[in-house]
What does this fold into?
Amino acid sequence: MPTYFETVARPVIAADFDYFRLPREKWELLLVRLRQMGVNALSLSLPWGFHEGEPGAVDLTGASDSRRDVVGLLRLSAALDFVCLLKPGPYLEAGVLGQGLPLWLLRQTDDLEAALPQAVTGWFRALSGALKGQQWPAGPIIALEIKAESGQPQPLSPQLSEVKWPIWLRKHYDGIEALNAAYGTAYRTVNEVKFPENWATAATPVEKDAALFLEAVQNETQSSYRQILLNHGWQVPIYTSTAESAPPWQNFTLTQPADLTALSQAPETASLNLRQPIEADPDPADVGRGPVWAANAPLRADGSPRPTFWQVRQKLWRQTLPELRLEGQTLLAPFSGGMVMTRSSDAALKTDMPPAAKAKAYRLGFTGELSDDETLKLGRGKVSGLYQAETAAGPTDLLLILDNPSTALTDFPLNYLRWLLAAQAQTLARAAELAAALGESLSSAQAEPEQAAVSPRRSSSATLERARQGLSEADAALRKAMASIGALESGFATMLSKEPTQSPVTPPAIIPTIFEGEAKDVLLEVGAACAKIAPVLHGATVTLQRTLAAPSGFTVEQYRQDYATALAAARAAREPLLEVIALLRLEIAAERLPLLAWRVHQQVQELAESLRWGVLRG
It folds into this structure.
């Protein structure tokens, strides 16, 4: 079957999307920003150690932390028309703790090379089971890239120097006499040939053999890992980081001025891989080696653009829009039915355009708000007036000139506005699901523990009493952890991470039935608020999805109506959520709720923040 690279004519412009560094509630916003910059593919590094915190406990669905939801990320990528290159390691670069390897694996073995094959097999098996169903053409995954070597100098393991090295020498030389002739030595057996301590220069015969040996080991390991993935059902291309057959990516690090200059000079048909496009500040302590990642990236951590964003966009748009032209610093993209204009700074415009009696100008803000632009004059085949790079409503994304606003959008503007709506629809759908789940789990109809459902009333009471006692003990343990660590979040995370399990860690369930009095009433109030907003969010989702699915596209007015619908739903839902968050904080601080109720607070806050970043966009 032809690969994606052989089938699709458009150039692949990939950007790193380090989802594990970014709060889950910002994924939709930041993916939209990459779309606005001109990216059409994502390079996704999967830190093995981040997803397998304990041996055999692999989380790729967000069960233990929403940042681990790779399955959801791929669905989101498909909705925004991204294709994806997956990098499952086992080694990773990108400033990740342990170079991507699980810290438990590094702690439990003195011979990493001997322990890796079995551990990697388990990781690749779990990854394949969860993700292989999203391969192209059914899904967004177009290729895998494995990295079998660390890329950093490290002591040679006994598995290599004492086991594989003598075996390689026996295969490489036809007897000990041939080896001695090549080395000018008098060894009796190959077991006497010690692996050289310093072979980097490959100046002597044994050092040259050491370099050849390590290259052979690397190739063998890469071939073995590739075969594991093939055996588990992968059919897309599987590349290694050093393979000559890999697509001819040109790599550019967007935080390096020299790379930004080189990017502007790259061939128009080149496949690009853009590194460090998004700043992570702070870089989460559970993955990053430093406190900040990709400082000065084109996109700040809150999704706002730096000046380099426009520099990169100019290159990417020119590469993906054949009709685009550059007048000074203004990008002009004509299409059937109008023209798009964008630049990074204020400027007086005077541009030719085809005459149209009903032509109208719109300003698209960076948030996605589309408003009439009354400052531009359209007439006599000219567009004239002031391009305002920023107004009181925020930065300008682009100007949209339409010959006839009442007709459906086509070409680039249709796709561009569709991506903006799709991101909001995805956020609303997820928020509706989270709100409904919280509303159900914190409802007055919440069933008692399973044991109580099949036991006499006396057992039910006893079960509830045990649950309350367990909650009290857990709360006491958390307070102790908090006192020693000095932060509630750290104490909570520490307690959860130490829970013994062979499956992804699931935080303790907090339901009203195990509470009494005022504490129970508070949780029921939280549940009622979430249950009330779920239909509002779902209704807005349906409205946006109906527009997105329309085969004939949509008009500017339909876009504006749906954008307003999304904002209204997000605001109507977020206001009661903020009140609930304030209530929970007050009750927890007053010790009327156990500290474990902080878990409910976190879920509600993530829901509110998702609406803030994914729909309201800041």
